[in-house]
Amino acid sequence: MLVYLSVIDSADDRAKFEQLYRQYRGVMGGIAYHFLGSWADAEDIVHQAFVYIAGHMEKISDPMCIKTKSYIAIIVENKSIDLLRRRQRRGAVPLDEAIPSLAAPMGEEGGLAAAIARLDGRQRELILLKYAYGYTNSECAEFFGLSDSGLRSLDQRAKAKLRELLREEGIEV
Amino acid sequence: MKLTDEELSLAARQVCCAIAGALPDAGECRHTFSPAFRRKMRPLLRRGGWHAALRHAAAVLLAALVGVSA
Q1: Burial letters for A108-139: b for 16+ Cβ neighbours within 10 Å, e otherwise?
Q2: Which is nearest to B19 in space by CA: A105, A61, A27?
Q3: How many whole angstroms separate alpha carbon A87 and alpha carbon B13?
Q4: Chain B residues lying within 8 Å of A11, measured CB to CB
């Protein structure tokens, strides 16, 4: 509840937030449902995602642009996968069940973009937040709930995996 | 090829477009959210309304106080 007290101060941001709510809640629900298979869980995730967005309105320049749509999708994906992981740890979901990331069809295209698209959930989210949305390391650490060293480790793993995927395509890095 | 920030930034933006392109349009998602969800969202959506009203009231009160003391 405390989160609410410090967020959405300007009229501009409030208007943007309402637009996001009207425009994307259905899409967000659909994404969360795709991961979780339950509308009750999906609605919880959508709420959590909106709480996060409300605290980071500076990241939204134009609510209607493609960049915003994928940003919101990344947030919902992250929160859904986190919930699934917590359930896996509690034994409610089989541990060996792979959690697929959101589809990012790259067509015939190869190269770096295709390699990023093939990364698993957290690694891909980190690369996208850092390099498409300009997240700083501390913003990324907050997003993933990681310490600085935990984030560095995730960053190193993501880039090592990218190099591996590129090498598989015959691209030396 | 080097993994420079510029290369990563360009490629990451392409992936974001691919993700957004694969998502359904807003009109295609017809789930009716539960009353419990709408209740939980209310503080976020209404916060601005009464917050702004409170600020407006404070400004009027301050102006009145300044007027009285002048």
Answers
A1: eeeebbbbbbbbebbbbbbbbbbbbbebeeeb
A2: A105
A3: 32
A4: 48, 52
The candidate with the shortest Cα–Cα distance to A69, out of B59, B68, B23, is B23
Handedness of CA B14, B18, B23, B26 (dihedral sign): positive
Q: How many angstroms separate the CA atoms of B37 and B32, rounded?
A: 10
CA torsion A135-A136-A141-A142 (nearest 10°) is: -70
Q: Given B7, B30, B31, which is nearest A39 (Cβ)?
A: B31
Task: Determine which helix (DSSP H) or strand (DSSP E) holds B25, and give its type and residue range.
Answer: none
- Is the ipTM higher than 0.85? The answer is yes
pLDDT mean over A149-169: 95
Phi, psi of B4 (to 5 degrees): -85, 160
Q: How far is A87 from chain B (nearest CA, A)?
A: 22
For chain A, the average pLDDT equals: 90
Best-predicted range by mean pLDDT (A85-89, A110-114, A150-154): A150-154
